[in-house]
Amino acid sequence: MAQTFPEIVELNVGGQVYVTRLETLTAVPNSLLWTKFSRGSPGELAKDSQGRFFIDRDGFLFRYILDYLRDSELFLPEFFKEKRRLRKEADFYQLPGLLRCLAAADDGSAAEEEDSAESEAVELSSPVTSASSSDRTPRSPGADSGYITVGYRGSYTIGRDIQADAKFRRVARITVCSKISLAKEVFGESLNESRDPDRPPDKYTSRYYLKYNFLEQAFDRLAETGFHMVACNSTGTCSYGSSDPGEDKLWTSYTEYVFFR
Known about the structure:
The chain is an alpha+beta fold. The protein contains nine helices and nine strands.
């Protein structure tokens, strides 16, 4: 007896787990997923160790593939930086309709940039400006809001001659705590997801960290995507390199910065 696909299908796309209906995967005739899940059989497709169908593609961008398959529409967050990669995914999954949506989104972005430039010109020519609004990063009502907490562990050594021997801040690891979708929107490929690969985008994590070497790189990305710092805290400890009180002092600290958009 030939095997058939279940009504509810579990997928592992590049380490991200998705659960959807078979009718969603086969919604677009002649697409890659339609071919695999309507013309093929379960035994022909690759599976992971948990028996989920495995697709070796970008797991984060697959959420937009599924959204399009469900509604035949595309909704991208503001400041979305990966249209080029999403276009590549749409081409791989053989979704010409999604490619047209991306082209239309590009045209819309160009028009918005022109409107924004005209608006800025009007503001510059106006004798009255609002100081409170001018330093605020614009954000459309549809953009996701929420908190992102950035933390780091650092250490430095102070010797007996402070001026000569001080070894300044060394950032060991920059961590990110937030909703999955927000973290990926802001940090993209600089986000290391290896410690928490299977959590869906609408959940929260405290296990991500960044590939950056400088804390300020994370701050720049947050500022570019409309986030503002609302709180911070820090703790520190001091220890000696040996039992001799005259030896260098090793300071370690943990600091968290809370951002909101």
